[in-house]
Amino acid sequence: MFFLIPYARLTLKTYLSPFEVETRLRDNVQSRAIGMRIKAYFRLSEHKPFEGKVANGTFNINRIIHYRNSWLPYLKGKIEQDLDTTQIIFTATPPLFSMVITVLAIFLVPFAILMAIIQESPNSLTGFLGPVFIALLFVLFFYVVSIAFFNYEIRKSLKILKEITEAIDSPI
Questions:
Q1: What is the mean pLDDT of residues 21-48?
Q2: Is residue 125 part of a domain?
């Protein structure tokens, strides 16, 4: 079931040292605070591109945006020294609430529609294919929209991370 949820595992490489990468990330991440988020949302103050936490070679951040998007990915990762480069390895996942809503929409809503149809006409399958097709279209539409919004936000976050860390590889 987890394969249906938007999820990405990405790696960036840079010639900067792990200490320099962590310092640059820390300089571009502010702590999570509701007051700061409200000010950033309404553009009442200057803010950094990300909010979250960077410490001890690890980070847990998300981008600060001026609009509402329930699929804004959380980036959780670590900074590691490789042979001649530094690797920034992270996973991007949507918020738990969005994942729960996706699972409910993909499985329970079409199931409820089909059960209502079967209950209306238990002995007849006449006219059954139309509502089944509609339920499948609903699932497909919801899934495609959620994937599209999630990937849109990953690309924007990745672009900012590449600029901050002077990344040399491009996973997307």
A1: 78
A2: no
